Amino acid sequence: MDNELQLYTYFRSSASWRVRICLNLKKLKYKSNYVNLLKQEQKSEEYKKINPNQVVPTLKLPDGQILSQSIAILEYLEEKFKLEYQLLPDDAIKKAQIRSVVQLIASDIHPIQNLRVLKEVGEDKKAEWAKKWITDGFKTLEILLKETAGKYCFGDQISFADIVLVPQVYNAIRWKVDMSEFPIIVRVEKNLSLLDEFVNAHPDNQGDCPPS
Amino acid sequence: MDNELQLYTYFRSSASWRVRICLNLKKLKYKSNYVNLLKQEQKSEEYKKINPNQVVPTLKLPDGQILSQSIAILEYLEEKFKLEYQLLPDDAIKKAQIRSVVQLIASDIHPIQNLRVLKEVGEDKKAEWAKKWITDGFKTLEILLKETAGKYCFGDQISFADIVLVPQVYNAIRWKVDMSEFPIIVRVEKNLSLLDEFVNAHPDNQGDCPPS
């Protein structure tokens, strides 16, 4: 009950990154509690009590309530702090299109190339595996964005789709996906990466990022 | 523009199944357009125009608008047809908890044991792979449901969480997950499986299910 928002986060976690961007856009101050995934801190008995799924992020509200799963957290923040910065439009169809892009990334791409899955895939195969799934998903995404993108994924208004896009592009580059196939994704990501709220949420700018 | 809801569906697709349950609960009539995934009909040029991601489900609205991604479709139906049958409570925290369970299944479990991924994992390893990821996810889910379940996942009120749970349990049984570890999941699924709306959405009761 520290009377403030607390985010359990790891600098390189895509899902934590999404929530960091959302909190920044909505100008919500929060305290970062760092959970080092490489050191398996998410598996500690202490953290398991906070998040039985042993993943980040977890958001602790000022009243002690605990929320997990990045997309559920985004939806909560949008409902409670819509006036601070609106990330879903009022129109139901447009909202569905944005959530569809969110799920394409958050369900069809990201989980399959997530660390815990790559570990099971094995050292010799993981690079090819990650690259394949991201490339497949981005092919669809590029087609969808052709219809909707302006400066950002949906016109010139930042939405949930942009929040999940940026960490996924970072992973794509990390796994050497040929981004020249995806000019719209590249353009949108470049526009977003210039914004303070996105810069401040970047892994390199987190307190738990090791000095390079 | 046939002036009716049309669902592009495959009897065994978990994501199509979710939308079928939701449409039934909300008493929305729809026409089924069957897309045979085994025959790769989702990869036809005709279907790619409807859904560039080449997956089911896709929901075509009476005015010709097209929605994809099961969770985005559920959210749309809830917003437009809340009065017909409410699947998310008004309270923002409870809503977040339900969406968290939805994402646990729809992002952390289901995509990793989906057909297209199992194909890449390979014939000799896929059974063990699917069983592992479902078991891991159900361990977390059982802990979460201990706090929230009544007759259903959240008290005695059917929610989005129940809609995604039922197809996931079907997959668990198919992949020989030891369900005796998960008494709450088993109890909730049994309660749900008795309801007409769930029975009518079951793969066995779809027009494209081959005769046994």
Give the N-to-C terminal Cα separation of chain A.
Answer: 35 Å
The main sheet of chain A comes to:
4 strands, mixed
* Protein chain pair with the most extensive contact, residues per chain: A-B, 39 and 39 residues
Query: What top-tier CATH class of the largest domain in chain A fits best?
Result: Mainly Alpha
Kindly estimate the percentage of residues of chain A that lie in beta strands according to DSSP: 5-15%
Class per helix and strand makeup of chain A: alpha+beta
Low-confidence segments of chain A, ≥5 residues, pLDDT <50?
none
State the assembly state of the protein chains.
Answer: homodimer
- Strand tally of chain A: 4
Alpha-carbon Rg of chain A, integer:
17 Å
> How many separate structural domains of chain A?
2
DSSP helix count of chain A? 9
Write down the CATH topology of the largest domain in chain A: Glutathione S-transferase Yfyf (Class Pi), Chain A, domain 2
Helicity level of chain A, as a percent range? 40-55%
Q: Based on Cα principal axes, name the global outline of chain A.
A: globular
Strand neighbour order, sheet with most strands of chain A: 2-1-3-4
CATH-level-2 architecture of the largest domain in chain A? Up-down Bundle
Calculate the mean pLDDT score of chain A and round it: 96
What is the H-and-E element order of chain A? Answer: EHEHEEHHHHHHH
